[in-house]
Design goal:
The chain has about 400 residues and is α/β, with parallel strands linked by helices. The chain has 15 helices and eight strands. Strands 3-2-8-7-6-1-4-5 form an eight-stranded mixed beta sheet, with helices on both faces.
Length: about 400
């Protein structure tokens, strides 16, 4: 479903008691003249093949609701009466929801799309701000395609509406298609340029992806603007990390690092995030297989992915226990040293934790009592995992100041 949200401001009337009109100039050179930008945007989108299934008009009790009727060619007496009634209510800032119910069907004819007119508070309080987001959420179905006019209304209202759209991306899988602003202040030769905030959309996608990346969801980077040249190594890296193939994952991470360092990303939003991507993949530059396993374990534990983190910490110790001339990927060789690294209580604790997490069983082994005291306390458990990270780091001789 295609939905357009527009907001009404207070407006300014000229001689003849009609609202001031403005010519809006779109990026393709098209000019639309209207007293409220939302109508110009809806008409331009329709001409561009983006027909709206629903239009949501938002405004306060003092917004210029009567301006919506100035575009109608209908001369029905009831419409004229509604125009006068709305004008009086707008002037006194007492427009009520019941009055807007009569307005919706008429504006639907004007805009050639189902239109709902919703009264919103001025959002001067937290409750009022919540109400605006609730009103918008109540009108938007799952997986809708959303366009927004961020031009009119109190200056903080478009900001709240934008946050509402960003929230709906997560909660209802809504797709933000376009954010538009009619820049009246930059009028040139009688027309105001229309600005599409495409960078804001792109930056939001990248910000969400980096957030997901920090929580182990590497696949969130696939398909982002600017990542086209990195798709192949990225998809292989996602697979190898899921299969716990640190050796193959390292090769793909090194390819990604080379590309990321070689040239800027084509996406401006991606370029802002590029240093964070480089930092994320630097584990591939650790000089030994043992150290690379440790870095993967450390990242997993810090994001509270304990199953992968604890297993990898144990594998790190197994790798460290192997003789220098032994193939570190040989299963039989690795199996032969399992348990031989257990020389301290911390080593046994790691092994007991590994068995508990890998098999989903109750704690067992020499550390059962200790593990039971922390297993129901998220903070204590996490702090214990951070302590064990330092134990293993010291064991394998990893110095953070060196590569």
């Amino acid at each position: 479903m295609n939905i357009l949200i527009m907001t009404l401001g207070k407006g300014r009337k000229e001689e003849g008691n009609r609202y001031q009109k403005t010519k809006y100039r779109f990026e393709d050179g098209t000019v639309r003249e209207t007293s409220f930008f939302g109508q110009a945007l809806q008409d331009w989108l329709s001409t561009d093949g983006k027909r709206m299934d629903k239009v949501i008009v938002l405004g306060t009790d003092g917004s210029s609701w009567d301006a919506l009727l100035e575009s109608t060619t209908c001369c029905r007496e009831s419409v004229d009466e509604l125009y006068v009634e709305l004008g009086e209510a707008v002037a006194e800032e007492r427009v009520a929801a019941g009055l807007l119910e009569s307005l919706g069907p008429i504006v639907s004819e004007i805009l050639d799309a189902e239109t709902v007119c919703r009264l919103i508070p001025d959002a001067s309080t937290a409750d009022g701000q919540f109400n605006i987001l609730s009103i918008i959420a109540g009108e938007i179905p799952e997986q809708a395609h959303l366009w927004m006019d961020l031009t009119h209304g109190f200056r903080h209202l478009p900001l709240l509406e934008l946050f509402s759209a960003l929230n709906l991306e997560e909660t209802k899988e809504v797709q933000i298609e376009g954010l538009y602003y009619g820049m009246f202040e930059k009028s040139v030769e009688g027309s105001a340029p229309v600005v599409e905030l495409s960078f804001a959309k792109e930056l939001n996608r990248w910000t969400r992806a980096v957030y997901a990346l920090e929580r182990g969801q590497l696949s969130a980077l696939i398909g982002l603007p600017g990542m086209e040249s990195l798709t192949d190594p990225l998809e292989r890296l996602v697979l190898y990390e899921q299969l716990n193939r640190t050796d193959k994952a390292r090769n793909e991470a090194q390819r990604l690092l080379h590309i990321l360092r070689e040239k800027p990303l084509s996406s401006p939003a991606g370029e802002l995030c590029r240093p964070r991507l480089v930092e994320h993949f630097q584990w591939a530059e650790e000089r030994t297989y043992c150290h690379r396993q440790f870095r993967s374990a450390e990242k997993a534990i810090r994001r509270r992915d304990y199953i992968h983190g604890i297993i990898l910490l144990n594998e790190t110790l197994i790798t460290h226990a192997l003789p220098n001339n032994v193939d570190r990927l040989n299963y039989d060789k690795r199996k032969a040293v399992v348990g031989t690294y257990c020389t301290t209580d911390d080593h046994y604790r790691l092994r007991d934790l590994r068995n508990m997490l890998a098999h989903g069983t109750r704690p067992s082994g020499r550390n059962t009592a200790d593990i039971m005291t922390i297993i129901d306390d998220p903070n204590r458990f996490h702090q214990e995992m951070l302590r064990l990270i330092e134990v293993v780091k010291k064991q394998i001789g990893l110095d953070d100041g060196k590569k």
